[in-house]
């Protein structure tokens, strides 16, 4: 999900030059969501919000309207994802290694059952292969990215194969 965003959205936004970016940050992409099965971690959702915030700073003087949305895991994914979104939007990102207060965890466990998370992240290694390394026709993600770029980029006068506007390889440990 993060690789798709970073390889498709920035070149288009830079070309379009919006006055404001409006983004919707649903939590149903989380890997524990029982309906969507999109397998995105809290760390990935956080990185997407950071990437959009950075793009808004670069392209439209920080004008960004970020909205919450969907998600069925009210004691785990939704509060953590939205806390990250609010932190990023307010200029005070929360590290994924931040401990969740025990009082809140106790309340959530008593109120909803289950096991509330201990940290603000999912303890995953968030990385993806740089597009600059080249297109891998055997990689499902690369194929879907290239298909999207081939359909959309020419409409904006962009070459689907260029990499100069991409963000490249990033390995995040916050």
Describe it for me?
With 174 residues, the protein is α+β, with helices and mostly antiparallel strands. It has one domain: Histone deacetylase domain (Arginase, Chain A, 3-Layer(aba) Sandwich), CATH 3.40.800.20. It is 41% helix and 10% strand. The chain has five helices and four strands; from the N terminus they run αβαβααβαβ. A two-stranded parallel sheet has the order 1-2. Helix 2 links the parallel strand 1 and strand 2. The chain is globular.
Using the coordinates shown, work out and report the CATH topology.
Arginase, Chain A
Strand portion, in percent? 5-15%
Molecular shape: globular
- What is the helix tally? 5
CATH class, named Alpha Beta
Largest sheet: 2 strands, parallel
Features:
single chain; alpha+beta; Arginase, Chain A; two-stranded parallel sheet; two-stranded antiparallel sheet; disordered C terminus
Task: Sum this structure up briefly.
The chain is 41% helix and 10% strand. The chain is α+β, with helices and mostly antiparallel strands and 174 residues long.
Topology:
Blueprint: H1 2-16, E1 21-26, H2 42-60, E2 64-69, H3 77-89, H4 102-112, E3 126-128, H5 140-152, E4 170-172
Parallel strand pairs: 1-2
Antiparallel strand pairs: 3-4
Helix pairs in contact: 1-2, 1-5, 2-3
């Amino acid at each position: 999900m993060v690789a798709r965003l970073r390889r498709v959205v920035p070149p288009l936004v830079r070309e379009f030059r919006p006055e404001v970016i409006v983004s919707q940050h649903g939590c149903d992409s989380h890997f524990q969501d029982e309906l969507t099965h999109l397998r995105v971690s809290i760390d990935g959702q956080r990185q997407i919000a950071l990437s959009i915030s950075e793009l808004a700073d670069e392209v439209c003087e920080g004008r960004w309207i970020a909205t919450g949305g969907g998600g069925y895991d009210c004691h785990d994914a939704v509060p953590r994802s939205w806390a990250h979104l609010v932190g990023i939007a307010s200029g005070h990102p929360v590290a994924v290694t931040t401990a969740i207060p025990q009082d809140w965890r106790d309340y959530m466990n008593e109120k909803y059952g289950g096991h509330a998370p201990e940290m603000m992240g999912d303890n995953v290694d968030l990385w993806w292969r740089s597009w600059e390394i080249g297109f891998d026709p055997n990689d499902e993600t690369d194929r879907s990215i290239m298909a999207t770029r081939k359909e959309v980029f020419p409409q904006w006068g962009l070459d689907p194969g260029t990499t100069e506007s991409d963000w490249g390889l990033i390995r995040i440990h916050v």
